[in-house]
Amino acid sequence: MTTATLSFDTTSNRWKAVFNGNLIASSGDKEYVISSIRNGLSNKARKFGVTDVIVKGESADIVVENPTNYFSINERFDFLAELTNMVIDGTAVSLLITGQGGLGKSFTVNSCIKAAGLTYTTDFQVEEDDEEYDPTLNTADVHVIKGFSTAKGLYRTLWENNGKLVVFDDCDSILKDANALNLLKGALDSSGERWISWNAEAKFGDDLPRKFLFTGRIIFISNKNQEDIDDALKSRSLRVDVSMTRSEVVERMSVIAFSDSFMPEVSHEMKRDAISFIDEVKEQATNLSLRELISVVKIRESAGDKWKRLALYTLTA
Questions:
Q1: Assessment of whether the complete model's pTM goes beyond 0.70
Q2: CA separation, residue 146 to residues 124, 130, 143, 254 (Å)
Q3: Distance between CA 240 and CA 220 in Å, rounded?
């Protein structure tokens, strides 16, 4: 086995793999460099017969002038999982996850929930006048809300799921509504007891109090940018941003593609070809997400010699 040495270059803020004085692969993402060599994605690695890497030095010894560049996209997804587990176990009361959709935010959160052995309901919320709905029958540990919610609907959701983990997945309406934000500020208040109150005139019926002590936890998953989120909400939450450049999207794809759980029925060779092609045409692509990766892998496997033209059409249509 021929091995390159991987080290972090503080001048360029990039991980570089070197073999016999030759630069084999370079990226801001450490895991991407390792994956590209071990999975045969690097042309230079194949040229020199390099099939593995060893890491030189420890990250604790690295001084980084620009910390934002240092935390690679795959490392940020590792942080996402770690912070999600902190909310699951009650170490923290809230997590705000931002960044473009389609590359694993919801999947990572759901994987953590399942790994913790928790049960959850999705879109359990119903209309307030639905007389058949009984919230006491919802015994799941986690409640997932997708789509639109009003401030009043948010109040009901937090009351009916008090003490649980509530996940707002792509429910950006509550992040823009002033009344909803005020409710969330109370729910996530770090100064002591977290009281939520509704003082507006409203016909709630007999089942909702005007105020209550909230003891649950909340995870927000949003495609919005961090700078577009209310500052008070950000200050009350752990935060992780997985926004990506197109190059980082390909780096993320390459790590996912060679994981054991991703399309295990497809050979590594087919996946390598698909990733390499996506990398070549990434600037032309209309959209880049796991859906596109799956499509290109399937096309590579079944479309014969003309697979690249069909894949290009699919990515740019």
A1: yes
A2: 10, 19, 10, 28
A3: 11
The answer to whether the CB of 161 falls within 8 A of the CB of 153 is: no
| Residue of 232, 243, 279 lying closest to 68 (CA atoms) | 243
Sign of the alpha-carbon dihedral angle for 82, 260, 303, 42: positive
The rounded distance, in Å, linking the Cα atoms of 29 and 275 is 16
pLDDT in tens, 247-258: 889 988 988 898
Q: What are phi and psi of 31, to 5 degrees?
A: -65, -30
Structure tokens at 2: 């021929």
Amino acid at 202: A
**Chain position carrying tokens 């999947």:** 107
CATH number belonging to the domain at 73-241, selected among 3.30.70.890, 3.40.50.300, 3.40.47.10, 3.40.50.11930: 3.40.50.300
pLDDT, tens digit (0-9, with 9 covering 90-100), for 82-95: 999 999 999 999 99
Strands 22-27 and 14-19: antiparallel
How far, rounded to the nearest angstrom, does the alpha carbon of residue 251 sit from its chain's CA centroid? 14
- Three-state secondary structure call for residue 307: helix
